[in-house]
């Protein structure tokens, strides 16, 4: 939980960014004596003071045999000569080589940093593009609303058609039922009338009707003969 | 600044006595003092962009002096008047 009222970075010390290394180290004279010693003695004794002090100390140590001269002294002298000669001759080359190594390290770090910056920059641009794209959301929503309205309308009309078809089917059924019933009643009535009429014609009536028909036909044939 | 927090190089000769009395001589104090001295030496002569031979040569010279001091008894007794 971060309390927003707590102040951040109020102290001087912070771990990052690390301050860069100093360019040159402390000054050292003749390789072993720091410059501060010479500066310390300068106000009182001038420039030659430390050298006089060194000479005096050396003679004192030699004379009192605090420093014993033996075979190791000769060895130390030779070794020191060789070391000083080597440093004077190969020093600058080694320094250049070390500087080159340092340069490469710094260059790789710088390249990484630049790459990171570049990727972040492209990320920012893409983000801005996405924000611009999001501004068109009103068009998208309008199109979607239109789609949905059309779907609803189509669905409504389909159902309306279904309802119409169903109602028509039921009504047709009722109409067919009524026609069928009337037809059946008609047929039945006709049949019943015919049956009763045929039953009511007795044989006596049949003979009389046949005789009457023959008389009528004769009369008709007479009139036809007369017409011709 | 206050006396007890100044490093040794900035203490004047007259105040040396009081400065030593404010020093912390427990093991942790001594260890801390050694560590501080070593890290300040490193920061001044070794962790720089262009150091010279000075950083290690001073350490070597100090080592030579120390070993001379430890073996002084042995040096002083060696005799060169050997086969007479």
UniProtKB/TrEMBL annotation, chain A:
InterPro entries: ATP_synth_Bsub_B/MI25 (IPR008688), ATP_synth_F0_suB (IPR013837). Keywords: CF(0), Hydrogen ion transport, Ion transport, Membrane, Mitochondrion, Mitochondrion inner membrane, Transport. GO terms for molecular function: proton-transporting ATP synthase activity, rotational mechanism. GO terms for cellular component: mitochondrial inner membrane; proton-transporting ATP synthase complex. Its main location: mitochondrion. Pfam families: Mt_ATP-synt_B. Residues 1-22 are annotated as: Disordered. It is found in: Mitochondrion; Mitochondrion inner membrane. It comes from the Eukaryota. Belongs to the eukaryotic ATPase B chain family. Subunit b, of the mitochondrial membrane ATP synthase complex (F(1)F(0) ATP synthase or Complex V) that produces ATP from ADP in the presence of a proton gradient across the membrane which is generated by electron transport complexes of the respiratory chain. ATP synthase complex consist of a soluble F(1) head domain - the catalytic core - and a membrane F(1) domain - the membrane proton channel. These two domains are linked by a central stalk rotating inside the F(1) region and a stationary peripheral stalk. PANTHER family: ATP SYNTHASE F(0) COMPLEX SUBUNIT B1, MITOCHONDRIAL, MITOCHONDRIAL ATP SYNTHASE B CHAIN. F-type ATPases have 2 components, CF(1) - the catalytic core - and CF(0) - the membrane proton channel. CF(1) and CF(0) have multiple subunits. This is ATP synthase subunit b.
Automatic annotation (TrEMBL), chain B:
Belongs to the ATPase F chain family. The gene is Atp5j2_0. It is found in: Mitochondrion membrane. Signal peptide: none annotated. Its main location: mitochondrion. This is ATPK synthase. It holds the Pfam family WRW. GO terms for molecular function: proton-transporting ATP synthase activity, rotational mechanism. GO terms for cellular component: mitochondrial membrane; proton-transporting ATP synthase complex. One of its GO terms (biological process) is proton motive force-driven mitochondrial ATP synthesis. It comes from the Eukaryota. Keywords: ATP synthesis, CF(0), Hydrogen ion transport, Ion transport, Membrane, Mitochondrion, Transport.
């Amino acid at each position: 939980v971060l309390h927003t009222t707590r102040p951040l970075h109020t102290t001087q010390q912070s771990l990052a960014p690390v301050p860069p290394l100093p360019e040159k180290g402390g000054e050292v004279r003749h390789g072993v004596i720091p410059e501060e010693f010479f500066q310390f003695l300068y106000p009182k004794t001038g420039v030659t003071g430390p050298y006089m002090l060194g000479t005096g100390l050396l003679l004192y140590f030699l004379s009192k045999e605090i420093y014993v001269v033996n075979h190791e002294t000769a060895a130390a002298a030779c070794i020191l000569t060789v070391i000083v000669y080597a440093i004077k001759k190969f020093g600058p080359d080694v320094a250049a080589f070390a500087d080159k190594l340092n340069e490469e390290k710094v260059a790789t770090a710088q390249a990484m940093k630049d790459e990171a910056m570049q990727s972040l920059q492209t990320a920012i641009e893409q983000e801005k593009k996405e924000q611009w794209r999001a501004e068109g959301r009103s068009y998208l929503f309008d199109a979607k609303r239109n789609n949905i309205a059309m779907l609803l309308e189509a669905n409504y009309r389909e159902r309306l058609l279904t309802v119409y078809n169903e109602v028509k089917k039921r009504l047709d059924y009722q109409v067919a039922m009524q026609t069928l019933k009337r037809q059946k009643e008609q047929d039945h009535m006709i049949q019943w009338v015919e049956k009763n009429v045929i039953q009511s014609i007795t044989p006596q009536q049949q003979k009389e009707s046949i005789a009457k028909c023959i008389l009528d036909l004769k009369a008709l044939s007479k009139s036809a003969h007369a017409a011709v | 600044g206050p006396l007890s927090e100044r490093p040794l190089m900035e203490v004047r000769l007259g105040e040396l006595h009081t400065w030593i009395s404010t020093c912390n001589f427990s093991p942790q104090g001594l260890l801390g003092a050694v560590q501080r001295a070593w890290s300040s030496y490193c920061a001044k002569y070794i962790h720089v962009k262009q150091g010279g031979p000075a950083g290690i040569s001073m350490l070597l010279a100090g080592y030579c002096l120390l070993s001379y001091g430890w073996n002084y008894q042995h040096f002083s007794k060696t005799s060169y008047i050997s086969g007479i």
